[in-house]
Design a protein that fits this description.
The protein has about 70 residues and is mainly β. The protein is built from no helices and 3 strands. The protein is extended. The chain has a 3-stranded antiparallel sheet, with no helix packed on it.
């Protein structure tokens, strides 16, 4: 990831609490390096090898890019 805000490696510690159910469902999410999936709002997109956002399903509308500024500005 290229981001001026990330200046060194960091670690996140999570606390898991036992749920009172007999068979609880434990949810965990790992953000792995090199991940090509991008979530914008409620939509998922894939990052192509040349850094373009591609739809992940047929008929998916393109992402709203009004909050993104072009690189180099």
């Amino acid at each position: 990831m290229i981001d001026n805000g990330l200046t060194r490696p960091w670690t996140v510690n999570k606390t898991y609490r036992r749920q009172p159910e007999r068979e609880p469902v434990w949810l965990d999410y790992v953000c792995a390096e090199g991940q090509q999936l991008v979530r914008i709002g409620n939509e998922n997109y894939m990052l192509s090898h040349d850094a373009y956002l591609m739809p992940t399903r047929k008929g998916q509308s393109p992402p709203d890019l009004k909050y993104f500024k072009p690189a180099g500005r």
